[in-house]
């Protein structure tokens, strides 16, 4: 921060896809962002930001920032662009789209967005109303959490569950497939405080992550076998006589059937599958049931294999079995987003989707661009991408790049930087960043509303996402109110300010205070399911789901169109093995014997920041963690350059030989740019869905690692 300039402070909200959704203080002078810090008054942010955001102003004024609309002047992907005016950019887009609609119909146009920006106005759903009105192909977005959400809704309903802040009262904390130190730092601080007060912290992770290293006990099941561990915990809690029978009798459905199902899922059975000893499983079951209040934090990574949904049903059942829900600080946390009063029907306008419009999965974008899975509809002739970078983030990179190279594809990219995806664009649109636009930031990791002030000028000609859609809508003659509302008016309409959760809070309050706790109990008194009160059809925790076939998704976001759990949903939770494993596919495993896990990078936010020198310095180059045994048999030494490959593709990284991973597993973190590296981790990822909610299967991939020349 520059001390010589008199600056003013404004409330900000971190717009990134991160459960912490920090409240920030922007320091601004002369319309320029000088610095940023964590809001000291916010109970979760507590005055600190993570390594990614602490010099956020440098991202705003980075020399590579996209400042003007541009058009492609060289071959696709060559990086040759020339500056044009906004009028030329928007006219080109509208002219091309009208021609495509005339020839192929509107479904030949498709949107592609995700949570690059988590704002209600400029974020995930920002363009939905526009593309629904256009009649474009609906892009189903199931990148993150939809398997988990389906399993959660089936078991306990749309409840925020255990408040992340209540963990300060927990005596036993299980963090399951979540690397909190990197991905949920402000929750980790609360967990650490509880640990200092005597709580035992257990981390269940496929490898010794930073978080696992800070735990009292690290349990390392093989990737994709957590369902077996969870079923064996159910078995052992019942066998050891640790069930809270009164809780089960009053507030759950299907205990007898679950008991029967679990009777054969013994700790010995699970030990074979998971690699965790039967003694350890019994011990975990005993401690989880008896050390109350016991808390479980499920990470998104728990869903990233074929049986992820069933795993999450089993884990979500545990606190009802042990009665942990009776206590403040007891229960399980998925995404507290469920009790936030957002009006997604107003934001997304699903009512504007013409009947019969086809749906394409964002996880299948490569295939879709190459003409696969489009039914009898037209090819995709234009894609508009904003808030997302599928080339690094979506599976099957090689197919995506082949699709984006199509000469007849018209790609529009709204971006901050010329990302791996934007580098293939025909038209580039410069988008505003954090301090440059008003918004409220959706949070999926705590129970606060968060406000972000527009307090800095956008550099160059950048404009906010919503302004891009307003301008396009005006050119296309869309008359609906949504397309005329200012960003402030959007916020008035997008939040249900009359909901009891907002009691005493309105947009003016948000502007004055920057954040507001929802009125859903305090972290010190909230035990939402002490007396059942599960928002399920039965009002109980449903171990067994009646009529699962008829399960209807709540009228929620376009993001969740993939919710239907499938015709043959098992009424009870169980272990469902990974698709790519030695047991399920021994032939494949002979050629590709190593299971790869590709979690988040500590210093990048998905692919954001991976182009910034200081973050690259903290993060280091793309590495591949490999065990001494696996390295030895392949003649790989520490620091060697290695190639990680399967039939879908390959990427390169530097070998780090370590006991942090067990034999059979390799770890390479996500987000490195393809432009700056050879391939990305998603070159090898499968497009296949998990068992529920069309979830991705990023932890369900077999590879081989070899020395690279
Ligand atoms: N192998 C593997 N793959 C994964 C995962 C994994 O664990 N392993 N995780 C998955 C998960 S959980 C997720 S959520 C997805 C995330 O995937 P994405 O959401 O695609 O993530 P990012 O790479 O951060 O892409 C966001 C892009 O939006 C841009 N952006 C940011 N803010 C704005 C804005 O205001 N306006 C505009 N126009 N652009 C903006 C950024 O510059 C960036 O290029 O990745 C998934 N992919
Ligand atoms: N620094 C940083 N923070 C982020 C992000 C980022 O990119 N960087 N991304 C944000 C986003 S979009 C999301 S969704 C969240 C995700 O946050 P997390 O849920 O923490 O996701 P990951 O870091 O991908 O994986 C967490 C841990 O799960 C382990 N794991 C993977 N597969 C399995 C498995 O099958 N079983 C078990 N037991 N463990 C497994 C991995 O080894 C990893 O240590 O983080 C958010 N925060
Ligand atoms: S990325 Fe997460 S931890 Fe970092 S500042 Fe943003 S919300 Fe906070
Ligand atoms: Mo995510």
UniProtKB/TrEMBL annotation:
Its cofactor is Mo-bis(molybdopterin guanine dinucleotide). It comes from Methylopila henanensis. Residues 7-64 form the 4Fe-4S Mo/W bis-MGD-type domain. SUPFAM superfamilies: ADC-like (SSF50692), Formate dehydrogenase/DMSO reductase, domains 1-3 (SSF53706). InterPro entries: Asp_de-COase-like_dom_sf, MoPterin_dinucl-bd_dom, Mopterin_OxRdtase, Mopterin_OxRdtase_4Fe-4S_dom, Mopterin_OxRdtase_prok_CS, Prok_Mopterin_Oxidored, YoaE_C. Transmembrane segments: none annotated. Keywords: Iron, Iron-sulfur, Metal-binding, Molybdenum, Oxidoreductase. CDD domains: MopB_3, MopB_CT_3. It comes from the Bacteria. This is Molybdopterin-dependent oxidoreductase. Pfam families: Molybdop_Fe4S4, Molybdopterin, Molydop_binding. PANTHER family: OXIDOREDUCTASE YYAE-RELATED (PTHR43742:SF6), TRIMETHYLAMINE-N-OXIDE REDUCTASE (PTHR43742). Belongs to the prokaryotic molybdopterin-containing oxidoreductase family.
């Amino acid at each position: 921060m520059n001390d010589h300039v008199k600056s003013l402070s404004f409330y900000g909200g971190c717009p990134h896809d991160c459960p912490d959704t920090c409240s920030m203080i922007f320091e601004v002078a002369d319309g320029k962002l000088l610095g940023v810090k964590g809001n000291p008054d916010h109970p979760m942010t507590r005055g600190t930001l993570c390594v990614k955001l602490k010099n956020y102003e440098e991202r705003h004024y980075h020399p590579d920032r996209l400042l003007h609309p541009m058009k492609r002047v060289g071959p696709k992907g060559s990086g040759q662009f020339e500056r044009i005016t906004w009028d030329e950019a928007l006219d080109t887009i509208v002219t091309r789209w009208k021609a495509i609609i005339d020839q192929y119909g509107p479904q030949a146009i498709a949107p592609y967005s995700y949570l690059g920006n988590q704002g209600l106005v400029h974020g995930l759903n920002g363009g939905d109303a526009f593309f629904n009105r256009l009649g474009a192909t609906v892009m189903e977005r199931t990148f993150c959490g939809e398997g988990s959400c389906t399993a959660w809704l089936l078991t306990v309903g749309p409840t925020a569950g255990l408040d992340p802040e209540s963990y300060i009262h927990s005596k036993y904390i299980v963090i399951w497939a979540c690397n909190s130190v990197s991905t949920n730092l402000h929750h980790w601080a609360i967990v650490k405080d509880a640990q200092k007060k005597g709580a035992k912290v257990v981390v269940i992770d496929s490898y010794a992550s930073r978080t696992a290293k800070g735990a009292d006990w690290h349990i390392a099941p093989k990737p994709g076998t957590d369902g077996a561990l969870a079923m064996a915990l159910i078995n052992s809690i019942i066998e050891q006589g640790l069930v809270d029978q009164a809780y089960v009798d009053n507030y759950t459905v299907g205990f007898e059937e679950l008991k029967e199902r679990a009777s054969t899922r013994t700790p010995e059975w699970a030990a074979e599958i998971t690699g965790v000893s039967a003694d350890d499983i019994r011990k975990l079951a005993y401690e989880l049931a008896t050390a109350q209040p016991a808390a479980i934090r499920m990470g998104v990574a728990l869903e990233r294999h074929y049986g992820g949904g069933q795993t999450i049903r089993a884990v979500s059942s545990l606190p009802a079995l042990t009665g942990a829900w009776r206590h403040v600080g007891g229960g399980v946390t998925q995404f507290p987003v469920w009790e936030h009063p957002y009006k997604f029907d107003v934001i997304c306008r699903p009512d504007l989707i013409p009947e019969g419009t086809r749906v394409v999965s964002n996880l299948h974008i490569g295939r879709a661009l190459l003409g696969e899975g489009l039914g009898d509809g037209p090819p995709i002739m234009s894609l508009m991408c904003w808030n997302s970078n599928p080339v690094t983030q979506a599976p099957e990179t090689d197919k995506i790049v082949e699709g984006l190279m199509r000469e007849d594809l018209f790609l529009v990219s709204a971006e901050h930087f010329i990302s791996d995806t934007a580098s293939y664009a025909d038209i580039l649109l410069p988008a505003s960043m954090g301090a440059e636009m008003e918004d409220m930031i959706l949070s999926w990791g705590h129970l606060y509303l968060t406000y972000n002030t527009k307090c800095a000028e956008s550099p160059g000609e950048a404009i906010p996402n919503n302004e891009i859609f307003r301008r396009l809508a005006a050119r296309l003659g869309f008359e609906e109110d949504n397309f005329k509302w200012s960003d402030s008016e959007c916020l008035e309409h997008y939040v249900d300010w009359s909901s009891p959760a907002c009691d005493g809070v309105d947009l003016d309050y948000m502007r004055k205070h920057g954040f507001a706790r929802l009125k859903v109990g305090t972290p010190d008194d909230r035990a939402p399911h002490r007396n059942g009160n599960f928002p399920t059809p039965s009002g109980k925790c449903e171990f067994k789901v009646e009529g699962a076939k008829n399960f209807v998704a709540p009228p929620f976001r376009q993001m969740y169109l993939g919710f239907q759990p499938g015709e043959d949903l098992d009424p009870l939770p169980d272990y469902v093995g990974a698709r790519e494993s030695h047991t399920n596919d021994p032939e494949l495993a002979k050629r590709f014997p190593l299971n790869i896990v590709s979690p988040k990078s500590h210093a990048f936010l998905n692919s954001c920041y991976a182009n910034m020198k200081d973050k690259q310095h903290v993060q280091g180059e793309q590495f591949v963690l490999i065990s001494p045994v696996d390295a030895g048999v392949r003649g790989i030494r520490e620091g060697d350059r290695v190639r990680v490959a399967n039939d879908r593709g390959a990427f390169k990284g530097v070998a780090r030989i370590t006991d942090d991973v067990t034999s059979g597993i390799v770890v390479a973190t996500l987000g490195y740019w393809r432009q700056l590296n050879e391939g990305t981790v998603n070159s090898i990822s499968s497009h296949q869905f998990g068992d529920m909610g069309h979830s991705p299967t990023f932890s369900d991939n077999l590879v081989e690692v070899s020395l690279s020349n």
